[in-house]
Specification:
By secondary structure, the protein is an all-alpha fold. 72% of the residues lie in helices and 0% in strands.
Length: 288
């Protein structure tokens, strides 16, 4: 009887340990699945061009040749980085200005059809980007916007605004209206109450929206590829896709991987540094 009881306890203990480790193993598997392509990109970037087809887990000889090749004068990669920075930064700033004002109006003003307006804004984000390329290309050709920054900024803005308006509307709705009322009792106008009270309290949500918008605009590809055909106006995503090797039959995997590392690492570092603010913006409200 004692032996049977001991066996039952050991079986129960093993089952408990298995259940304890299952979530950890699941998370580890997801992390490995997500990071494996990034790891291989970094490893390939540091291989010598002659070893780009090597499948070893680490480079046999570490080399910076691919990174030097990225910035050769003929690639235009430095200019592409500047173009991406201009497009992503402008898109982010405009999204914050327009999105904050729109979200605050939807959260505070009482008017008929407010929920319908918010639903329509969200519905616009459901259109696939590829379906809008042809009409946008025709429109921008007619008005002479091809090979311009605005031809890339405005479409990116249309895709970023719905997410920004939705996030900020939910954020503003969590803020008690007594905040503005108390400020106006103290002599502030509605605009001053918004700038001095609401905007500082909404900083976590606005910061999160800015980070997400910048990443979205920085990684955008199909619009930049369609609206720009001059090398000095292309963004980094387009520049990477157009890298060519030393000869007609050379596939520059190493150079593309090195460019991918250069483009991705700043975003990864930024997210890691500001991850607390991003999480706070997604989960907290005005009462924090």
């Amino acid at each position: 009887m004692t032996t049977a009881t001991g066996n039952a306890r050991r079986i129960t203990r093993r089952r408990f340990e298995i259940k304890k480790w299952l979530p950890i193993l699941g998370v580890a598997g997801i992390v490995l699945y997500c990071l494996a392509p990034f790891y291989w990109m970094v490893v390939t970037a540091f291989r010598r061009p002659a070893d780009q087809y090597d499948l070893s887990p680490l480079p046999r000889t570490w080399s910076l040749e691919n990174f030097r090749a990225v910035f050769e004068p003929g690639t235009g990669f430095g200019r592409a980085l500047l173009n991406s920075l201009i497009v992503a930064s402008t898109t982010t700033i405009l999204t914050l200005i327009i999105g904050t004002s729109t979200a605050y109006a939807l959260a505070r003003l009482a008017f008929r059809g407010k929920n319908l307006v918010l639903s329509l804004i969200i519905a616009t984000s459901m259109f696939p980007g590829i379906s809008l390329i042809v009409p946008l290309l025709r429109l921008f050709t007619d008005i002479g916007w091809i090979n311009t920054y605005q031809a890339m900024i405005l479409p990116s803005l249309s895709f970023a605004l719905p997410l920004a308006v939705w996030n900020l509307t939910m954020f503003f709705r969590q803020m008690p209206q007594e905040l503005e009322q108390a400020a106006m009792v103290d002599g502030c106008t509605p605009g001053q109450a918004f700038r001095r009270i609401i905007v500082p309290l909404a900083a976590p949500g606005m910061f999160t929206t800015a980070i997400l918008t910048f990443i979205l605009a920085w990684n955008e590809f199909i619009i930049a590829l369609s609206m720009v055909n001059e090398q000095n106006m292309q963004t980094v995503t387009v520049a990477i896709s157009k890298f060519t090797g030393a000869t007609q039959y050379d596939q520059p995997f190493g150079t593309q991987m090195a460019a991918g590392v250069i483009v991705t690492i700043p975003l990864v570092i930024g997210v890691l540094i500001f991850q607390r603010r991003i999480i706070a913006g997604l989960t907290s409200g005005g009462l924090k």
